[in-house]
TrEMBL record:
Similarity comment: Belongs to the ARV1 family.
Compartments where found: Endoplasmic reticulum membrane
A GO BP entry: sterol metabolic process
Main subcellular location: endoplasmic reticulum
Transmembrane intervals: 126-147, 159-182, 215-235
Keywords (A to Z) from UniProt: Endoplasmic reticulum, Lipid metabolism, Lipid transport, Membrane, Transmembrane, Transmembrane helix, Transport
Protein name per the record: Protein ARV
GO CC terms: cortical endoplasmic reticulum; endoplasmic reticulum membrane; Golgi apparatus
Length: 242
């Protein structure tokens, strides 16, 4: 149960203060009979994690607002293993948007046209392209951060935590589906805003994970975008619609 998990994480010193990012032995102390006392951080003298008392909806709202405290709570003080499934679902959303745009550019209303059914394979192609672009984006970020702050990424676990943070911070791509369902003249503007929101989330995830300033994450994202756009240019030279 939660008590066993808490004891194991406390033994590993895995908890973090959401305010100062300092290590903590425990998030709270259970005095039984429903009496809990939130632990106080020894460094900043503030509650280690106030979000353990909050409703998940409030935590989600704070994460959407890109608050560093909410990101630390999710990344360090909870046991969330949905980053893989979330990544696949976000890529499916992005592939669906690209597939729709491809169909709009080559509409064919003949129900007997077998080519129209064959175009379903375009969706899988778009999924593969979106996966390669995101992979190149993450690789660009990791290489840049490893080059600029090698002391932050010494172990394999550091890279895994960074990758997990990046995958979780792409949740903004889920907004692609509502943007298409409620189609209107400003859909391209909405897609651009979603892209910016995802990049801001990525920046905050990098900053929280490695405890960096605000400039270095954006520098890494910039190089990640360069590598991603390089992959896009490569696909375009091959004659593929992306």
């Amino acid at each position: 149960g939660w008590e066993v998990l808490s004891g194991a994480m406390a033994a590993l010193g895995a908890y973090r203060c959401i305010e100062c990012n300092g290590e903590a032995a425990e998030l709270y102390r259970d005095y039984r009979r429903g009496v809990l006392r939130i632990s106080i951080c020894k460094s900043c003298q503030k509650p280690v994690d106030k979000y353990i008392e909050y409703d998940p909806v409030i935590i989600l709202i704070n994460a959407v607002l890109c608050k560093a405290q909410a990101y630390r709570h999710i990344l360090f003080n909870t046991k969330i293993n949905i980053h893989g499934k979330l990544c696949i679902f976000c890529l499916l959303c992005e592939a669906y948007i690209r597939w729709l745009q491809l169909q709009d550019s080559s509409q064919n209303t003949d129900p007997d046209d077998l080519i129209r059914y064959a175009k379903e394979w375009d969706f899988y192609r778009m999924f593969g392209i979106a996966s390669l672009e995101q992979t190149s984006f993450f690789i660009g970020i990791c290489i840049t951060l490893w080059w600029m702050t090698p002391e932050m990424l010494k172990r394999k676990s550091d890279f895994i935590l960074l990758l997990k943070a990046l995958l979780l911070s792409t949740y903004g791509k889920l907004l692609l589906i509502p943007a298409v369902i409620w189609e209107h003249d400003y859909t391209p503007v909405c897609l651009a805003f979603i892209k910016v929101f995802v990049l801001i989330s990525n920046s905050q995830a990098i900053r929280v994970t490695l405890n960096l300033n605000r400039i270095l994450p954006w520098f890494a994202i910039f190089f990640g975008l360069i590598l991603e756009n390089g992959v896009v240019c490569l696909f375009q030279k091959m004659g593929w619609d992306v």
